[in-house]
Amino acid sequence: MKAEVRKLDARKADAGGDAPPVWVGGVRAAGELGLRRAELARAVQLGMVRAGPPAPGGAARFAQAELDRVRAADGFPEALRRRVETVAGADAAAEALAISPSRFTRLARCGRVAPVGYRVNRYRAVVWLYLAAELGEFAAREPALLRGIAPPEDRELMAAKADLRPRMWRERHVGLLLRRTADPWERAAVLASVLPEAEAREAVPDPAERIVLAALAPPPPYGHPQIPAAAAVALRLLRADEPEEVHWYRTSLEFALTGARDQSKSTGESGPT
């Protein structure tokens, strides 16, 4: 299985024509783009900067040609920084929108704005991150939601004590990961990684396929805590929990597996080719 994963990585590598690409580490890449490390990670997550295959030790690296492409864009570097700027928590997001933190919390819990990331603070509470540019776009698009009484659908959600932030973040995270690959086995691995373990095992009864999907599973997003107590809190964010959401990801996984298995049959290989 490891050989199959290595073949997948090799196929993904940008050959850059006849000449081998020049690879740059993450620290240098961030410096060349005028970004902090977290901002570079966000730019990669959002597809603004394409990362290359990891170095042999697993460290991130970038093709120099890719950095040159980003630097040649109009408005660089200010435009890039604006696109990856985030605000953390309800207080900062509310200040950006000139509304109260309680109103922003209601808007976020009702799914009006989608988090782009998270962190877990010292009290093991989830602090959601939002793109500053998207908050500005939301304010321009939905000014009525920033003032006055909440619409009926929001009042219904709040009465049910709904909180759509985790689900909205997962939907966004999975969508971004899927857009970064066309390989059916890797796409299946993304979908399997969101399912509760029992659901994933039922959807993928073949142990050999589960090994392939585990090897191709995406790593936790940048900022995922390493301290066990905080990591346990964050781990719950990575898994679908409500029945409707679980059903959607499981159905999507089964569809992706059908395509992956068909590919393997056509190539005579087991797993990614």
User: Would you tell me the structural class of the helices and strands?
Assistant: mainly alpha
Calculate the mean pLDDT score and round it.
Answer: 90
Strand order in the sheet with the most strands: 3-5-4
Shape: globular
Classify the helix fraction into a percent range.
Answer: 55-70%
Protein name: DUF6397 family protein
InterPro entries: DUF6397 (IPR045652)
Pfam families: DUF6397 (PF19934)
Structure description:
This is DUF6397 family protein. It comes from Streptomyces goshikiensis. With 273 residues, the chain is mainly α. The strands form two sheets. The protein has a three-stranded antiparallel sheet with strand order 3-5-4. The protein has helices spanning 2-12, 26-33, 37-45, 64-71, 78-84, 89-97, 101-109, 132-141, 152-159, 165-179, 184-194, 197-203, 207-216, 228-235, 243-267, and strands spanning 23-25, 61-63, 86-88, 117-120, 126-131. The protein folds into three domains: 2-82, Multidrug-efflux Transporter Regulator, Chain: A, Domain 2, CATH 1.10.1660; 85-162; 167-267, no CATH class.
Secondary structure: elements and pairs:
Layout: H1 2-12, E1 23-25, H2 26-33, H3 37-45, E2 61-63, H4 64-71, H5 78-84, E3 86-88, H6 89-97, H7 101-109, E4 117-120, E5 126-131, H8 132-141, H9 152-159, H10 165-179, H11 184-194, H12 197-203, H13 207-216, H14 228-235, H15 243-267
Antiparallel strand pairs: 1-2, 3-5, 4-5
Helix pairs in contact: 3-5, 6-7, 10-11, 11-13, 11-15
Pfam families: DUF6397
Protein name: DUF6397 family protein
Organism: Streptomyces goshikiensis
